[in-house]
From TrEMBL:
<protein>
    <recommendedName>
        <fullName>Transposase</fullName>
    </recommendedName>
</protein>
<dbReference type="InterPro" id="IPR009057">
    <property type="entry name" value="Homeodomain-like_sf"/>
</dbReference>
<dbReference type="GO" id="GO:0005634">
    <property type="term" value="C:nucleus"/>
</dbReference>
Length: 118
């Protein structure tokens, strides 16, 4: 019952709790071994080339950057590298207000190249 309660608290499966408990009893450690995860697809040079391209061309897409820098990973990997390893963030267009009847009657308001005079 304790394992079930812990599984609910940590929001994991009960087998995960049992595996961690067994590992603690046998080895007195619960951490993963170094190097036990998936190997990196890219080198630090690949990451730096991608980030440098994005700095020099801030309005280009990640897909364009991947093609121009011969980045060996997936586009999701490239986005993760840019987000984690640099201060760069994606650019979002400014929100434009809706034109209402009141807005149209304001002097000096310009919309799509046409001035609305009151």
């Amino acid at each position: 019952m304790v394992n079930h309660t812990l599984a609910q608290i940590f929001e994991v499966n009960k087998s995960t709790i049992l595996r961690a408990k067994r590992k603690w009893q046998q080895e007195r450690i619960v951490q993963r071994k170094n190097g036990s995860g998936r190997k990196r697809v890219t080198t630090p040079e690949d990451d730096e080339n991608l980030i440098q391209f994005m700095r020099n061309n801030p309005f280009e897409s990640v897909v364009t950057a991947i093609n121009r820098t011969n980045f060996p990973g997936h586009d999701r990997t490239a986005r993760n590298r840019v987000r984690q390893d640099s201060e760069l963030r994606n650019r979002v267009a400014a929100k434009k207000p809706f034109l209402t009847a009141d807005n149209k009657n304001q002097p000096g308001l310009i919309c799509k190249g046409q001035a609305f005079a009151g």
